[in-house]
Amino acid sequence: MIFSDAAKNFMWPDNAVYLLLELYKEKEEMFNTSFKKHNILWKEIAASMMETSNTYNVTGQQCSNKLSGLKRTYRNIIDQNKKSGNGRNSWEFYSIMDSIFGKKASTKPPVEASSDGPLPPTPSTSNIYTSTSTPEVQNSTRKRKVESILENFIVNIREEREIVKKRIENNEIRQQSREAKYDEERRDRLKMHITKKWKYLNL
C-alpha cells in the first residue's frame, strides 16, 4: 500500500517532532487515566499529524516508537547530568521533554520507555535526582527563554492546524456553492429548453 510505504520511509523533521510532543501533551492525561486503549490514542495523534500536514504520513505505532526513543534519550541525559552535575544540554528537544516528563524523571529512576506511552507515576522514598536541581536553578533564565520560544512555536503549530481546518471547511463550502450554482444553471437550461419546445409545438 502507498500509505504503508510512505509511513515506513518517514524521516522525522524537527517540526514533526515538536508537533508530536504537543499532541501527546494534549492527550497526556488520557494516557495516564483513561480507559481508552493507548493504540487508539496513538492512531488519533497520527491522524492529527496528517491533518496538519499531508507530508506527516505516519502511523500510530511510529508515533509511539518515536516518543519512546525521545524518552530514552531524555533519561540518558538526566543520567549524565546526575553524574557530571551539569544541568545544561544542547539537545533541541530537551526543554520541551523536561516540561512534560521532568517531574517524573526527578522522582523515579530511568526505565525503558513503554511503547504505549508514559508509565503511571509510582511512589518514591527518595529524590534520586536532587543533585541536578542546583544547575537547573542556575540556568533558570536560559530555560525560561527556551521554553518561551517553544511555547511560541507550539502556538504557531496550533494556529497552522486551525488554518488547515478552516481551509478544508472553506473548500467544502466553495464546493457546495459550485454544486448549487451548477444545479441552478442546469434547471435554467432545462426550463429554457422546455419553453422553446412548448412554443414550437404551439406554432
TrEMBL record:
Residues 106-143 are annotated as: Disordered. It comes from the Eukaryota. Residues 11-100 form the Myb/SANT-like DNA-binding domain. It holds the Pfam family Myb_DNA-bind_4. InterPro entries: Myb_DNA-bind_4. Residues 124-140 have a biased composition (Polar residues). Gene3D superfamilies: Homeodomain-like. PANTHER family: HEAT SHOCK 70 KDA PROTEIN 14, MYB_SANT-LIKE DNA-BINDING DOMAIN-CONTAINING PROTEIN. This is Myb/SANT-like DNA-binding domain-containing protein. It comes from Trachymyrmex cornetzi. The lineage of its organism: Eukaryota, Metazoa, Ecdysozoa, Arthropoda, Hexapoda.
